[in-house]
Amino acid sequence: MLTKLCPVFMPPTGMVIIPTGSGTEPRLKIEYVEQILSNRVNNAGEEQYLVLWSSKSSASFPPLSWHNLNELSRCLELVQDYLEAKLHASLSRKRKSPDTGNDLDGHRPSPAERRLKQASRSSSVVSSSSTSSLSPHPPNHITHPQPPEYKIYNGVLTHKGGYVVAKYASSPDVPRLNIRDVPTAQMISTANRSSTRSAEDVIRAEILRRLRALPGPKIRLTNTFDSSSPSLRFQWITEYVLREGVFKADAATQEGCLKCSPHMGRNIGCEYTKRCDCLEYAAVDENRLSPEQKELYAIIRAEGGSTIGLPKKFPYYAEGTKEEKTGCLVPFYLKSRNPIYECNDNCKCGRYCRNKNVQFGRRVQLEIFKTSSRGWGLRCRQDLHQGEFIDTYRGEVITDEEATRREDSAGKSKASYLYSLDKFAESEGLSQEDLYVVDGEFMGGPTKYMNHSCEPNCRQYTVSYNKHDCKIYDIAFFAKEYIPAFEELTFDYLDKDDDDEEDGAQEPEEQPDEDSVPCLCGAKKCRKWLWT
């Protein structure tokens, strides 16, 4: 509660922030800030947000101060956290049962939300040891002046290393406010009628700036349901980030095809599968085996050995075919889920070989959009042809042990971001503990926003640029079928094949246990539960 009320607050001499002369306001450094607790529009019409500073000086009376968005430009993640908490608190009030008072949407409130809810039940706006009202007029007076706009409570503002910082202070001219009472009922009332539009616009602009920095066609962002934006805490990356205990195969193991050249007839790089060394471990096209080759292939499968020289297929349609097919997966790979081995920088086939595709990155126009019931989703702004490459799934590559720890800590919903790199586990004799896992929750690319469907229109494929590295490879999404522009892109989180679905077809079961995660895909053949 406020224990000292002053009509005007003047910080002690020497502690007022002095302009640096650069023409810009000093910023707050996020390392010094713990949380945003409230918002207001001041008398000048400027949006301001109440900052709770990290402080070891006083647990009950830590420094609190109001700042505009320019000052908070390095703390936008915290501003977004506050706005999300405020939005959820508002939805919670709308969806609350009048009998039980419980939230009906299953949302777990954040500390900021709990603070907002607790404070909203308080009947006291402010109080003082010396007065019970902010107004000097009698209760029945028709004039109701606004309370003073304090800049800071429990401290003073100064500079440190070019940034604004707050220091705890308890002198008589410093307003006091107990953290247990924040936000006060008066603050909540003010916040509920104060616009946050500028903050929402600034956050959205920052998201768009980060999206523009990604290679490839422009990624758009659309939200017609509310004012939220994807999390600023999500880090956009263009390749895997390898964490502790994760290692790529030595670069010396990456071999290229040495018998191919950029100009082998059609000027498309590799043209003969029997000569391309990159296809050494690629699947054999058994339909083209001669009787002698069938016998040889049977021996190789039983005893081991190289399949070089046996008929195989390049994974992509080459130039010279129909335009809509160029670069798309051929049916041999699209329907079989065989691993794809692309040529690499050590090959003699040239930069624009027909067998290089995913490594060049995304070439389609994507849009992240807010769905009506499943959070954010992903769609393409152009038609996608069957077998067309969309983008890869990226993130942190962690050990299986670390993945288990993260999943145990976060719960079953975490599984939707974890992708085990287990394609070669059986063929290479890798144990579960030897496998790596991609975690795309906190960093990755736009495919992080692809939702699940039990009848997906996209499918994920293994793409390797080093045939000798069976532990790290790309996960690439391709269109499973023709997908018209603006249709949501989905894939099966359980990575089931069509054959698996047909063999194991059964009626959806009732909830297996109380921790099961329901499926909301809405497909006709929905399995009803994602994680059980």
Please describe what this structure looks like.
This protein has 532 residues and is of the alpha/beta class. It contains nine helices and 24 strands. A hairpin with a 2-residue loop joins strand 6 and strand 7. Helix 1 packs across helix 4. The radius of gyration is 30 Å and the shape is elongated. 31% of the residues are buried. The N terminus is likely disordered.
* Percent in strands: 15-25%
Terminus-to-terminus distance: 47 Å
Gross morphology: elongated
Mean pLDDT figure: 85
Q: What is the β-strand count?
A: 24
**Overall SS class:** alpha/beta
Major sheet: arrangement of strands: 2-3-4-5
Q: Supply Rg.
A: 30 Å
Helical amount among residues, as a percent range?
Answer: 10-25%
Uncertain stretches: 1-23, 96-108, 120-144
Q: Major sheet: size, sense and barrel closure?
A: 4 strands, antiparallel
What is the number of helices?
A: 9
Short summary of the structure?
It contains nine helices and 24 strands.
Topology, element by element:
Blueprint: E1 27-28, E2 33-41, E3 47-53, E4 64-68, H1 76-95, H2 111-120, E5 152-153, E6 155-160, E7 163-168, H3 185-192, H4 197-212, E8 220-222, E9 235-236, E10 241-242, H5 291-303, H6 331-334, E11 340-341, E12 366-370, E13 376-380, E14 389-392, E15 396-399, H7 400-410, E16 418-420, H8 425-428, E17 436-439, E18 443-444, E19 451-452, E20 458-464, E21 474-479, E22 490-491, H9 498-503, E23 517-518, E24 529-531
